[in-house]
Amino acid sequence: MDKITLQGIEFFGYHGVLQSEKELGQSFSVDCEMYLDTSLCSDDLNKTVNYADVACEIVSFCKENRYDLLETLADSLAKDILLKYSLINELNLTLHKPHAPIPTAFDDVTLNVTRGWHTCYLAIGSNLGDREKNLDTVWSEIEENPYIKGVCKSDYIETEPYGVEDQPDFLNGAIKIRTVLTPRELLKFCSDTEMLCGRVRTRHWGERTLDVDILMYDDEVIFTDELKIPHPEMHKRAFVLQPLAQIEPYLIHPIRKMNVSELLEQVLV
Prior knowledge:
Elements lengths: L1 E12 L5 H6 L1 E11 L14 H14 L5 H15 L5 E7 L13 E7 L1 E9 L4 H14 L3 E6 L3 E3 L10 E10 L3 H14 L14 E7 L4 E2 L4 E2 L8 H10 L12 H9 L1
Antiparallel strand pairs: 1-2, 2-3, 3-4, 5-8, 5-9, 6-8, 7-8, 10-11
């Protein structure tokens, strides 16, 4: 991936926790590294990223908005750039706050964040209420969220309950998205969408109005108490693999090193 770098973009802003920072303001600067494919620009500015425009956008955004934390400023700025300049796949931002109110000698305070577009896959399921409407809600929420682009979704399939059998049959599906959300932010989106449909957690593997699970996030492997990617049960579940195979049969599982069609064949044997 090619890289365009802007260094030392200066602006005067009102970002900080202290009241004096909010009232008096101070000087900041930004370094921005943008990753994109420039191989097909054909010497045409319209086919690449105009770095002069990006520099002006950075200054404008940082002047027009006010945040207490550098962390919030950096995250919001990065997402703003990614949404406005579609050719940028990933960017690295470094914010400099050389005049931070620190009661000792220092040269600079910096914060560095990396944000980009990620390809992710979601599993959706419902066996309570209007099941089709519940599943449709996920796509509707994706379309309403500026940080997520819906790429495609599978047909819905009817499946018998898994694990706990004394409950109604499910409708299940799979969705492919592109998003600038981090894994934790995407998890929150999934949880919020479940709550929108009245999800109440009763028993493990039990009935639910809506279940939205992250199956894969690029080819990342994440294992924490709150989030496990790829989904640790996806390779065992036909009701997950069947709709996923419909939209992405050759997607490679990053741990098992098999594609979705091969995993499905194993499950159905």
